[in-house]
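Cross-check.
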Amino acid sequence: MRGLTIGSRIADLYQIGVDIDEAPGGFARAFVATNGDGRQRAIKVFRAEHFELPEERCYAYYRTLANEADLLVEMQGHPNVVRLYDMGYLWPRDGQGQAYEAQSYGMDAQGFAEAMDEAFERRQLPYLVLQRMPSQDSLFRLVRRNPHSVRLPSDDVLGMALQLAQFLVEIHSRDILYWDPKPEHVYWDGDRVIVIDWNVSRRIQPYEAADKGQDIQLVAQRVLYPMLLGGTSYATGTKIEATPGSAPDPVVREDVDYRWQEKWLDDRLRQWLDPALLGQYHTATEFLRDVQECAVYYGWDIEGCEPPNEGARQCRASMRRGLDKLRAAQRLLEEASRDFAEASIGFLPAEYKEPKRLSRLVRELLEDGWILP
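Predicted model, tokenized:
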């Protein structure tokens, strides 16, 4: 069975655009999809090539989209969870090239799940239509386009940790475990974290004694640690594999190695990060409490916590102003580099070398003096 490609049309619902898959080889592929109102979404579609796998394994992969739809419907409206707009099944229209028929279930996750066995027998492709996230906010892309392992500022990582800790408190209160945190699945615009992938996350069953501390450790190892070390993995050289229904294994160590960043990490920051990395938190509430106390120490105003020292508050305000200016300067340099590159392929004679010289100068400045991912 063929899968979606650029230019495919799904009934009168969606026109398929470019591939935006950040994790090739997963259970599904992701594309830009334009709906009938001209709004751009992301569409996540089961990989047709998985039908070539042994049936039991293929079906396990297939069911992940029903699991994800169920959890996303449960979590809709949460500020740190990607929005879900639609779910359904699609199949090729006979003799129509890139045209597909579709059965949409809207936000009816139960109906979508109940139809799954029959859809599997017919080799229909389950899909989810989601909020399209700005590619530049992907933590994966922040790391990938960072050539010198420059880490995120501690204040950014602290802000990220506060939101992820609160997010874990919320999902644990609903007996949900988030099992697949990694840079490909987390977006950060400098203000808000959004988690996009829920394939292998799951509900805790009433008869289970699940360890709710495990996903705290996974978030620390796979998201927060790489952001503090410029993309360096906590388990360098280890490929992370997601398996439906199985808990991933955190890296087990007796102590934490921050490599060359050790001298730049304050002890106060490590008071919550070290225990998170080592799996010493058993509840997200404990984790959140310690991150909040650290944030207040560094000048954050946290609702429900004691106000920070005024000196710390002023220090953080100055830091944020400086970071905003650095980011603005970096964006302007990137724009200048593109302008010079465009000028170098204009209508002037080839011997006019100034645009190329300036473009190279700015690129070298950005690369050699890279400040922020």
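The mean pLDDT is 86. The chain is about 40% helix and 15% strand. Passed to J.P. for a second look.
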